[in-house]
Amino acid sequence: MKIKILDCTIRDGGYYNNWRFSDNFVEKYLNTLQKCKIDYVEIGYRKNIKDKNFGKFINVTDQLSKKLKKKRNLSFSIMIDLADIVKQNLNIDRHFSSQKKSGIDLIRIASSYEDLKHLKQTIIKLKKKKYKVSVNLMKFTALTKNQILNFFNECRKYKIDFYYIADSFGNCTPELINNISKYLRQKKFSLNKFGFHGHDNLGLGNENAMTALKNGFKIIDTSIMGMGRGAGNVKLEEFIYNLDKKNQDKMFYIQKFIEEVMMKMKQKYNWGTNFSYFYAAKNFIHPTFVQRLLTEKKFNFYNLIEILSFLSKSKSSKYDANIFDNFFLEVTKFKEKKIKFRNKKVNIFTNNCKNIDYIVNSSDKKKYLTASLNLNEKFKNFPFDYIFVSNPYRFFTEINSIKKSKKKIVIPNFKNFQKNIKSNTNIIKYNFNYSNNKFKINKLECSYKLNLVIFYAISFFITNNFSEINIYGFSKNTQNKKIEIFFSNFISKNNLKTKLAFHS
Questions:
Q1: Which of 184, 270, 399, 463 is deepest in the core (most CB within 10 A)?
Q2: What are the tens digits of pLDDT across the range 83-97?
Q3: CATH number attached to the domain at 4-269
């Protein structure tokens, strides 16, 4: 059986650009892979998401796949997340046509061991629609041999096309692959339907892939320059070279694409192996935590080590964007301390405000307090009455400035760093707690599913019965528009007298 390559540059690489790939990129990418005769090209996800923040490859439609396939001799795959089906965000009957109508050849199901019980119906429905089906066992390095065996024993009841082990944490080693392979063969599995999806956190991506091949695996995932979540994937160019060092034509086509297109992407997003990903892999920390930390570009090396050390002691094997903050900065209760305000009108300034001096000077300074969202370098010399910092990222990186500041700073009662700020009498405690329930505010805290500093500041002033709240530098994007509508409805519903106005 011929060794197969599946390239997932768009699907896995989309974690860096929210699946926003230009038409020019896609055209050159697909033409390159066609020349290289790559067996499968994974062009994205099928997720029931309608969000302008994401590009079209987060939810690959039949229309898109057929358009891309036209005049090309390529086999396309897409990935679905079993968790989306469990949550009922994705309905197989409703969101998938037959294979013949779709332009998609292979559908890969990403599944955790915990979701095994939900696999059966999904596989049956997709096979009925004539798709080739692969099941990717995520986070296999955190499982026992018996769990892995149990998972694949269930899968083979339904005659799937490929069984994948996915190195989600990037901590797989050649030794582990050898051991798992030996165990599966002992349990009467033929490995000629097995695939390997590797990440390069330890710098072992390519070596792991070659070890899988030596053990009889027949399909390997790659991406060009390794573009993919976290430290990235097995590099297509390296894998092809190691597979056949004489294959100069393929190497030429890929290198041409790298020079013309991919180098710019690499410089912009800077994926690849580094110490943070290495540390995360060794401690079973989900790589998206590291990716987000590195993307913030606020942390020095010592900040990163402290955060990663905390995450290693926390339940951080699963990434959840909404509760990430609570993984390393827990808020604690405190006794209410009455705050004296000289008046009950406030102007809040975001970092997008371009005419702060004009606004302040044209207002009655005696009637309006001023507040800033975060310790902004742009306004560091401006004499704000209050500064709001709700996000632990900000708190963590600006803690030295907070300690030194003579301005009143409103922050949640972060447990881990209270010792650092006890001496500062200008600290006002107002908690933020994550909650999937209804929005709640009181004198001590606000509770909601999103931790946004503007949300936090408005809640603080509303609960302290301010008669007028103005926000300046408020960009009219989709998220901000929702915030404006949300608070307008909240004030109206609760018959509050607060006048709230948003200014761009």
A1: 184
A2: 998 887 889 999 999
A3: 3.20.20.70
